[in-house]
Write a structure and sequence with these properties.
Structural class: mainly alpha
Helix content: 40-55%
Shape: globular
Strand order of the largest sheet: 1-2
Order of helices and strands: HEHHEHH
Length: 148
């Protein structure tokens, strides 16, 4: 599930859509959203996002580009991103966008290598907990949801 965060109404709609399939946790303070493509722009000037926390996580280039090619070949072999050059360009554009977000909001983002989620889970979660500034440790348990 993903809608563009162009207005506070978009954010409210996203929460309403989520709530149709899953329940919000009591006393929850965070909404997690993955922006996997440049098609979605994060509008951090929205009042509802004034305290937004941004995690930027990247896989290594080679498996990422191979994954992009595989994904788009499943849709159409004629797709620009189904070819190595197109997939590489797509990846580089994504890096530019993420770099721009980081430069525009240097105090609001935390970067980590995606592989750390599996290879150094406890340390990564501890670092994220400290960076967010929450007392309760983050759990390595992951729940599956209707839109997961």
């Amino acid at each position: 599930m993903r809608i563009a965060d162009l207005s506070d109404a978009d954010l409210a709609q996203q929460i309403a859509d989520y709530s149709q399939h899953d329940s919000l946790k009591p006393d929850s303070h965070y909404q997690f959203d993955k922006l996997l493509h440049n098609d979605y722009r994060l509008n951090l000037s929205l009042p509802a996002l004034q305290n937004a926390i941004i995690f930027i996580a990247l896989r290594q280039p080679e498996p990422t580009i191979k994954s992009i090619i595989k994904l788009f070949r499943q849709k159409s072999t004629d797709d620009l991103y189904a070819q190595p050059t197109g997939a590489t360009d797509y990846y580089l554009e994504r890096l530019k966008t993420l770099s721009s977000v980081a430069q525009q909001h240097p105090q609001r983002y935390y970067y980590f290598d995606t592989e750390k989620v599996c290879t150094d889970t406890d340390r990564l979660l501890s670092q994220l907990q400290q960076w967010i500034g929450i007392a309760e440790p983050l759990s390595p348990e992951y729940g599956s949801f209707a839109k997961t």
